[in-house]
Design goal:
This protein is of the alpha+beta class. The protein folds into two domains: 87 residues, Histidine-containing Protein, Chain: A (2-Layer Sandwich), CATH 3.30.1340; 70 residues, LysM domain (Membrane-bound Lytic Murein Transglycosylase D, Chain A, Roll). The chain contains six helices and seven strands, in the order E-H-E-E-H-E-H-H-E-E-H-H-E. It has a four-stranded mixed β-sheet. Strand 2 and strand 3 form a beta hairpin. Helix 5 crosses helix 6. The radius of gyration is 16 Å and the shape is globular. The chain starts with a strand and ends in a 5-residue tail after the last strand.
């Protein structure tokens, strides 16, 4: 949980030509989340012109990470305030508090984290990568996994936000999950 920064000039244009003139921007963000496969049943969204606040519950850590990245990869969004909790919103609070924390982004990504190629986000099982000019998914996979052929792992982790592995853009923030053994 916390603030995750994005490039406001990069991202999908969901508000039209001018973010400040968007009517009901929080509703637009919520619809964008749903269109990209995020279950918004227990998510509340707010938007103050530069920052999206996501509050509520999601089913899994992967759903949380995806919600944050889909909301952040919108043109005009500079930050996402991640207040999402993983778990059933109707579950007993004591049971939720006693649940073990998600594992950190270790293993195959450790060298990429140490080299600063990807960013670890507290409480996430994945790490993030901000696309630079000239990047490809296979090049990113080579950097973070050591094998270019692992690009489908990154592609699948970012679907349906990504519809084609060849369509990424500078400033886009991608979710990089740990490799399954």
């Amino acid at each position: 949980m916390g603030l995750i920064s994005f490039l406001a000039d990069a991202g999908m244009k969901v508000f039209g030509p001018d973010t400040s003139k968007a009517t009901e921007p929080a509703k637009t963000i919520r619809e964008h989340l749903a269109e990209n496969g995020v279950d918004v049943t227990h998510i509340k969204t707010r938007f103050d012109g530069k920052r999206v606040v996501l509050d509520g519950h999601v089913a899994s850590a992967a759903a949380r990470e995806k919600a944050v990245l889909v909301a952040g990869n919108v043109q005009g969004v500079e930050e996402v305030d991640d207040r999402l909790e993983v778990g059933d919103p109707t579950a007993d609070a004591a049971a939720v508090a006693a649940a073990p924390a998600a594992p950190g982004p270790l293993g195959a990504l450790a060298a990429a984290i140490q080299a600063g190629a990807v960013a670890a986000v507290e409480g996430w099982s994945s790490v993030t990568y901000t696309v630079k000019k000239g990047d490809t998914l296979s090049g990113i996979a080579k950097t973070v996994y050591g094998k270019a052929s692992k690009y489908p792992v990154i592609f699948e982790a970012n679907r349906p936000m990504l519809s084609d592995p060849d369509k990424i853009y500078p400033g886009q923030v991608l979710r990089i999950p740990p490799l399954e053994d």
